[in-house]
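Reopening this ticket.

The earlier resolution said the output was attached, but the attachment link was broken on my side. Pasting everything inline this time so it's all in one place.
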Amino acid sequence: MLAYFTCELDTYENMAGTEYLDGSSFDLIEDSTWLKSLPVREDFDKGIYRHYRLFTYDDVYNIIAVSYEFVAEL
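Inline output:
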């Protein structure tokens, strides 16, 4: 994981730039302005990272990572 941002759901919905919410609980954000604007070290290859967004009941998690693994215990 390179970076993450978490925010309370109602606040997130009122933030600028979140108008493209599509109702999914987990998304890959294509052409992410956040990822493009991250001031990472010069030796990091931003091209291998992806921007994922996860909605829970009360919170929203934005995560910049190479990949993800989703594990659910039933």
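Reporter confirms the inline version is readable. The mean pLDDT is 85. Helices lie at 9-14, 33-37.
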